[in-house]
Prior knowledge:
The protein is mostly helical. The chain contains two helices and no strands. The protein is rod-shaped.
Amino acid sequence: xxxxxxxxxxxxxxxxxxxxxxxxxxxxxxxxxxxxxxxxxxxxxxxxxxxxxxxxxxxxxxxxxxxxxxxxxxxxxxxxxxxxxxxxxxxxxxxxxxxxxxxxxxxxxxxxxxxxxxxxxxxxxxxxxxxxxxxxxxxxxxxxxxxxxxxxxxxxx
Length: 157
């Protein structure tokens, strides 16, 4: 019997590559989200440091408070922009997670089909081996029987 060959092996490999590609894209989106979160934390930390510096300054005047207020408003706008980017990124991540699940599902379906086909092939292979072994046994048994049941030549006197 010939070796097992899954005709859809190329498609299976392609589905596996597709799933890996979707997972790579998901990883990139997660890194992008992490970068946005770090940027948001940086804006908050910078604002906090500036507020502490101005309030700790021995020469606290209206101009420095006005500058701090301007900086606070700009930081707030920047925070809102980053939060919107985070929300958009989280939505893309959720869509990408669905794409990864679907790609994995498609790959798994082909793997399962391959497994079922291999099991069917193995069953047929085992049956063929068993039949050949049976035929071999019968042939040997028939040969042994033929050798033992040969008539003895009759001697003529």
